[in-house]
Amino acid sequence: MIDRRKIAALLLVLGAALAVAGSFEGTYRTVYRGFGFDQSMTTTLWIVTTEPPQGGPRDAYHALGWPVVVAAVLMVVGAVLTMRERTTFVGRPVAMGAAGALAGIMFSYLLQVRREERVLSELLVKNGGSNTLDVLGGAYLLGAAAIIGLVGAVLAQQRRQRKQAVEAEEEKVVVHQLANDDDTPPFGIAVLDDEKRETP
Amino acid sequence: MTTRRAFGAILVFVAAGLAVAATFLSAYSVQVELQGRTFRYEATSWVTERDDFRGALLLGPIEYGEPAVGAALVMALCAGLAFRVPAARVGSLLGAGVLVGVAWSAVAGVRGTIEKLRDLDAPVPFDVEQGDGVTMLIVAAGIGVVSAVLHQELPRRVVSEPVVDADGVVIHQIEGDDSETPPYGFPVIVEPKEPEEPREPKSD
Questions:
Q1: Per-residue pLDDT tens over the stretch B188-203
Q2: Could you tell me if B121 and A70 are in contact, meaning their C-beta atoms sit under 8 angstroms apart?
Q3: What's chain B's average pLDDT?
Q4: What is the pLDDT of residues B68-106, one digit of tens each?
Q5: Within a domain: B192
Q6: Which residues, in sequence order, are bridge partners of residue B179?
Q7: How many domains does chain B have?
Q8: A interface mutation test: which of B85, B93, B175 has the most A CBs within 10 A?
Q9: Best exposed site among A9, A64, A161, B34 by fewest CB in 10 Å?
């Protein structure tokens, strides 16, 4: 039981760490070949760096660094809270919500990168060059972080379900059937009324 | 199911509905006044609705449609399932979390568009506006989180732990209002008895 809780917390922390690390790694690189030279742009969740350099790095168009960091911090908070018996009931929802948020961010980001790829391939026809978009390690790292975080959050819920099942069983009404003829009949034992009380 | 949890479940459905509706509303718009003419770009999360620039600005929809609908489905299904399987309640929280992530990404997408257009160094300023879709998505995410937390109903059962007395009998104290059965039951309205009494023993 305790082992599962530890594994869940460990997975949540691992997911959070991978997400933060992944946000600083390059997620994708676009190479434009229409300028006579290869202009490549490497994007992280924070900044875009160009090669050859053009006036330093600038903010990424899909700057999701802060959302990822916030989700990761909440995942760690959730993991820590689930470790303590008293705070487990707060930790589980926090972990689940945070892991969900990270998954949501990554899902949106993935779709956005795919759209970028589509736009690039349309651009290819216009200027005759062959622009490319390569998905880099950071994207895989972030994807893995989201999945690991979700698994951790789901594992963290497990114990409550079992506890609830036990509680539900406890709450069942116990009906005792006594195998004896002295039992009270369903409509009670007929009371021998006094004649006086019967007549008004 | 308590009133609070039922209320939470209903709000989860509301949030899911709003999230789906948000994907069909305008996500953002870009407008520019040029020589007395107005050029406008407008897109929902699914398609470009209007593009007077004919693709020159390389603008496109902010892709939050699929994740938002996915989150709404998870929320609604889990809230529905939770009426039968209480453990499914946690799914509404998962959906709400996803919705928050998606809403934040959508806002970041609009910000990114503003940044992108600023980088173009155009002589005329582009007027970028966040659409009703993104605003509604933020509202849906907010309602989603509140409703999912209500839906969980964190344990208060410690107060009414079953008491086990000396004979091993378990006594449950049920929290409730005054409309419950009083300890000695409700007084029975006695109707005038009929002369015959069938259950009386006929020993004489």
A1: 777 776 665 555 555 5
A2: no
A3: 83
A4: 999 999 999 999 998 888 888 889 999 999 999 999 999
A5: no
A6: none
A7: 1
A8: B93
A9: B34
